[in-house]
Structure formats: C-alpha cells, structure tokens
Amino acid sequence: MRYRAGLQTQAKILDATRKLIAESGLEGTTIKAVCERAGVLPGSFYNLFDSKEQAVLTVVRQAIDAADPDPEQLGNESLKDLVEAYVRFVTGQGDLARVYIGIAVSGSRGKPELRGRVLRHHQARVSRFRQAIEKERPGLSEQDSTRRAETLVTSLNGVALHRVLDPKFDVAVHARALLEGATT
Amino acid sequence: MRYRAGLQTQAKILDATRKLIAESGLEGTTIKAVCERAGVLPGSFYNLFDSKEQAVLTVVRQAIDAADPDPEQLGNESLKDLVEAYVRFVTGQGDLARVYIGIAVSGSRGKPELRGRVLRHHQARVSRFRQAIEKERPGLSEQDSTRRAETLVTSLNGVALHRVLDPKFDVAVHARALLEGATT
DNA sequence: ATCGTGTTTGAGTATTCACTCTAATTTGAT
DNA sequence: ATCAAATTAGAGTGAATACTCAAACACGAT
How many CB pairs under 8 A join A and B? Predict the structure, then answer.
C-alpha cells in the first residue's frame, strides 16, 4: 500500500466498516457488505487487510481514541471537562460511539484481543476520572475517589448505551446529574 | 407439544439456549451448538420451534420478566427494594442478566420485535422507579422525578454492563451510591 | 392391544460466510 | 517510454449456517 489509489481504497473500506458496525453491529458487518458499500471487490479488501478482524480492530481503535479527549493534557482537566467531552463524543460522533458501546457489550466475547483492549481502556479512563475527582475533593481517600470514578464512568456508559437504543434520549441532562452525584 | 417428552425437550432446549447466549452471545448460539448441549437433533428443535429466533425470543422474554421483582406488588415497594432486586438479578442470575444486557444492544438492531420489547420494558421500569422516588421525596415535580428515575435505571444498566466484562466488579457498592444520588 | 398423533432421527438442501488465486490493469519512479 | 510493483477484477474454495423432510419410533387415550 504505497500508491494513492491504495490509500483511498483503504479509507473507503474503513468508512464502510465503521458505518456498518454502527448500523448493524459486528454480526451484520460482513466482507460482502463492506465491499459493496465501499464500492470494492473482495480481492481489493484482502490486498489491504489480512483479515476482517484487522479492519474491525482498526475501527475500534479509532472509536476508543475518540472517546478520550486531548490525550496530551492528561491530568490537567476538570471532571466537568471530562464529562462534557464524553457527552460530545456520544452525541456528536454517533457512529464511533455506537461502535464503542456495541463492542463493549457484544464484541468482547471470545475475542481476547478486543476484550483486553476495552478493559485496559476502561481502567485508564477510571484513573483519569479519579484524578479529576481528587482535585475537586482533596479530602477523599483513594478508595473512595476510585469508587466514585468507577460509578461515574460505568453510569455514563449506561446513559450512552440507552441513547443507542433511543436517539431522543437526552444524554447531557443525565450526565450533568451524574457529575453532581460524583462530587457531593 | 402435548406429551411429557416434548415438554422436557423444550425445557432442555431453552436451558441450552440461555446458557449459550450467556457464554458466547448471539453469534455463538448456533442451532448445532444448542442441539448438542441439549442432547437433541435439529429435527427435534424444529418440531418445537419455528425458528432459531423464536427460541432466542423466548429466552429473552424470560430474562426481561426475571429483571422485575414481584410484579404483583407493583407500586408498593420502596426504591431501595427495587435497586436491591436489580442487584440480586444481576449478581445472582448472571446468565439471564447477560442475555438481557447483550440483547439490549446487539440484538435489537435490525430486529424491531426485540427493540420494541426492550424499550417498552425500559419505560415500564422507569415509571416504577419514578413512583418509588416520588414516595420518598413527595416534593419533586413529575419532570424531576422522571429524570431521576431515568438516570438511575440507565446508570444501573451501565454498572450491570460492566459486570459482564469484569465479573469481579462490585455491583452492590455502586448501586448503593446511585441509590443515594437519586434521593438527595 | 390398537391406532392416531406427537416425537425423534439423521441425512440432506440451499445459502452465506471469510477468504484465495490468477490474470489483467494501473501506477509512478526512472 | 519502460518496467517492476501495487492494485483490481471476479470467479471460486471449503466450511458453517439455518432449516427441511420422510421414515421410524414412542406415547397414551380408547
């Protein structure tokens, strides 16, 4: 993959894969469907990717990266910043958010690669939230701040999950309530 | 299906289906796998069920029913009762809880039957939680109590979701924290 | 004991899946 | 313009899928 044509084809395939996962989950994401939507034939797909799983993993990596804001400023942002960034991710990048949530539930079974990646990401996220909580409430024990961070992160995922089912669900309102609950 | 043998076979098939969905998701739940685990041949399966989807739907219906405590005492239980019942369901009936959570995301796509069922059940659940909240905090507006109930129910789902990924995750602790957040 | 009906058998069907292969075409540095 | 390498075309592979069917068998009311 060194020519322009190859790079364009790769982008088209990844776009198609992302949209298909968001629309119909891993189950509905077949090579045939991806190729049809990308306007490409299977031969081209396998010229650029070793397997279907490789393409899926690339998209999942994109989704996980997109769920975290400004990785450079790690440790310098407020809890409100973190929550708002997640709300923006869920409401503004619907496709990636659906991939993220969908993988967290169904895609991790029997696929250690995916499961490990999701769990590692979750842990990093909890740690980041914990730091922000400790900055806001310096008196808390580490155990307590960790517990609050875990409750907040998993609850936010639950709210995001419901938005996948009901697009009218107001994520921002519930995120605000959870934010308040975590700091009082 | 009128003889005892048929009823026994039906029960064996549903048990196998439930366990397989819990272990390996919808994707891994094939007719062959279900039949092998149930000690039955495909012909017997299709003598009792019209399709794979029918068997899956039956299991999902069981899971949804099991998520609600004492349907007869509707409206008479405290918020704490409701939360504790959900924790018991998630921690004690892992199989069904996994089916419920998994279906809510991955299974509902492209299957209006399932999607509608899940959303209707969610609405009933929110309404039940709202009533309990209003009894605990009589001063709240309906809009406010509804918002609190929605936050609580979706957050509990998020906590339960994470337990699917990490069996060591302490659901009870986080459920308690969410319960407190909903009533203060 | 008989007989209609429910149940099981187990091979068989059509389809779809991820993936391969070879030949033809396109690319871009020279 | 040339040519090696990158890319594409598109039919084809074997395995797995959901599902079917006719024949054998088991049940239980009579």
Answer: 127
pLDDT in tens, B7-22: 999 999 999 999 998 8
CA distance B156 to B134: 19
- Residue B107, pLDDT > 60, answer no
Alpha helices in chain A (DSSP H): 4-28, 31-38, 42-48, 52-67, 79-92, 94-102, 112-136, 142-165, 171-183
Residues of chain A with pLDDT under 50: none
Region label for A138, one of left (φ > 0), alpha (ψ between -120 and 50) or beta (otherwise): alpha
The minimum CA-CA distance between B2 and chain A, rounded to whole Å, is: 36
Q: Residues spanned by CATH 1.10.10.60 within chain A?
A: 4-49
pLDDT value of residue A88: 95
Q: Which fold has domain A59-183?
A: Tetracycline Repressor; domain 2 (1.10.357)
Within 8 A of A109 by CB-CB distance, chain B residues are 23-25, 27-28
Superfamily (CATH) of domain A4-49: Homeodomain-like (1.10.10.60)
